[in-house]
Design goal:
Elements (H helix, E strand, L loop, with lengths): L1 H21 L1 H5 L2 H29 L6 H17 L5 H20 L8 H27 L4 H22 L3 E3 L3 E5 H18 L11 H29 L14 H24 L1
Antiparallel strand pairs: 1-2
Length: 279
């Protein structure tokens, strides 16, 4: 019972912080400040995910360039978040990504490393795996108003996949990385995401996601890539022999444990949003 209450309390704090940062602009009556608060929250999460990734890399005998990695992750998440009010900031993000690889290889000349290429690659991965998805959160919220819907779909997918798998699951989906996941549970979770998108999506009024097809596509993206994001993180944890990526949320694990699905979903949700503009 004690464990249950600890899990409930930590999950409640997490939900309040996350949802509060998303809707802070409406709560204080200033959307500009709200975007800034959500951007700061995004940077905090991106840095937390990066810290856990680098720790896992270290357990595998690698030496990522942590100071430079943290700096680049923070700057990319910041400039992407600010791009909602200043589109030029997006070009700064692209510039940072372009110079990151040559910069890190040059810096390896002054580092004592037995595996300079591997260390550089694993320093770079959080820029794409953590910084870009988190930096795009303010964009999905402020420009497209679908961030909260993506989060709801993640929760729905996790819940219905678990229930469906417990009741009907017979065929293991990926036993090597996640023995509990089944094809039946995954299918039920994806279907639930699509249904939530179709029936609840229109409540999130915006100028782009205004057809049933767009909500179906977003539901499929959240259901499928949310599951794959969870499997990717499970794969990383098994590679270095740990159960949880961290312990910031008692009873729930670390940043990567909580945001693994969103890290995979957000870039694809952003592409869906761009397609709705171009279509």
């Amino acid at each position: 019972m004690k464990t249950f209450w600890i899990r409930t309390a930590s999950a409640s704090v997490y939900a309040l912080l996350f949802i509060g940062s998303i809707y802070s602009g409406r709560l204080i009556g200033n959307e500009g400040i709200g975007v800034a608060i959500l951007t700061l929250f995004s940077i905090f999460v991106a840095e937390g995910c990066t810290f856990e990734y680098y720790r896992m890399a270290s357990k595998m005998g690698l030496k990522p360039n942590r100071p430079v990695g943290y700096a680049l992750v923070g700057l990319i998440a910041l400039t992407l978040g600010l791009s909602t009010n200043d589109p030029a900031s997006a070009f700064v993000s692209v510039a940072l990504l372009l110079i990151a690889t040559p910069l890190l290889f040059l810096l390896q000349l002054w580092r004592n490393s037995e595996h300079p290429a591997s260390d550089t690659i694993h320093t770079l991965i959080p820029l794409f795996y953590c910084a870009i998805p988190m930096g795009l959160m303010p964009v999905l919220h402020d420009l497209f108003n679908i961030l909260m819907m993506c989060i709801i779909m993640v929760w729905v997918n996790d819940s219905f996949a678990y229930i469906g798998g417990s009741l009907l699951g017979k065929h293991k989906m990926w036993p090597k990385h996640s023995p509990g996941k089944t094809w039946e549970g995954t299918a039920i979770g994806v279907i639930a995401c699509v249904l939530v998108g179709v029936f609840a999506g229109p409540l999130f009024h915006n100028d782009f996601f205004n057809s049933t097809i767009t909500w179906i596509v977003l539901g499929l993206v959240c259901g499928i890539f949310g599951t794959l994001g969870d499997l990717v993180e499970s794969m990383l944890k098994r590679a270095c022999g740990i159960k949880d990526s961290g312990s910031i949320m008692p009873g729930h694990g670390g940043f990567l444990d909580r945001f693994d699905s969103l890290l995979m979903i957000i870039p694809f949700a952003f592409l869906v949003a761009l397609f709705t503009i171009l279509a």
